[in-house]
Amino acid sequence: MTTSLGPLLAADEQFLHQVVETFANVQSTDFGWCDRVYGTAQAKDGSFGIHWSLGKWTNRNVLDGHAGVSRGRRSLIVRANRRLEPTPLDLSAGPLRYEIIEPLKRARYVLEANDVQPVAFDIVHEGPEAPWLEDRQVQMRGYRRAKDEIRYIQVGSVSGWLEFEGERIEINPDDWYGYRDHSWGVKENIGPPAPDMRVSSDMPKGVRYRFFWCLCRLTRPNGEAYRVHLFKWEVFSSRGTQVFNETKFMETDGSEFFAAEAQIDMQYDPVTRQPLGGRFVCAMEGGGVRPFAIEPVGETRTVLGAGGLYFGYKGRYQGQVMGKLHVDGERVDDTTDPAFCREAHQNRDTLVRVEDPVGGGSGWGILNSEIVGAWPDLGLGEEYWR
Fold it and tell me: pTM of the predicted model, to two decimals?
């Protein structure tokens, strides 16, 4: 007799079931289904940027992740990939390890000393406030629902230590800023593309696309801290215009409200397409305008494509089947090199100073952005790589 049920796991002892299945299986059969965490820690003086991830791809029988450390234009990256079976609840792969210390409050990520790169760290992220949820994100590709996921985000303090090429650096909350997120659902560009499908991360020619995603924690002169999620993307093409704005304000008293509209007023490097600074201007639902001044700090950038394999990198993809255990890495000497930028894509975490003159606060943010196509008013010619 055969059974359609997955095997029992320790998690099945908990009163957490939401579908008629064990925790070994997921309800979707899509190969892009994932449960994934990502985080970053940034030195406020711009000297170092650290980023990490861990993803469980149940329908691909894979658990993979990465850890990267950038210092200026240099970046050292370690990646690990293992077969999920027979330990699906073990949140580690090779030298990478993720630990939930206190749910929705504190989490730890460890990169142990390894033979791939001369870098290791042990970092605890703590959120002084509860995480917040983004709206559900659904994207269609023709007749297929290629993306269907939700994500929660938590900004806060980071502490621990970093070892970089023999130098040990203490990480303390006063001098560092970070965030972590946890997403689950069906993701895009997972595993090598099917041979009979045309898949490209590039935008079609003629399209103008701009994406802005910035996680901020600001403090007023009286010591009150509040959070702002500056989030907008826009697409202009011959088929019409699409605009998505989920800019959200979270006050110290727990109240939340959204911007009715938002305008991205930024300058970009014409070669790397990385943001050089500017403003993010919000039109408030109750009337009035609230501009945020955005200023990148230093030249350290954490490159998501080379580390987390976003959109694929050198033939490697998230969730790719690599066998029982595969550990490798990357050394990038200049993250602004034009050839590297196009191969690793635009997604990078940039530490920014943020000023909110209307709200009365100032502080820090992590900015991730993309800009594609021709934007003559910004000095950008036709380029369609993401």
Answer: 0.94
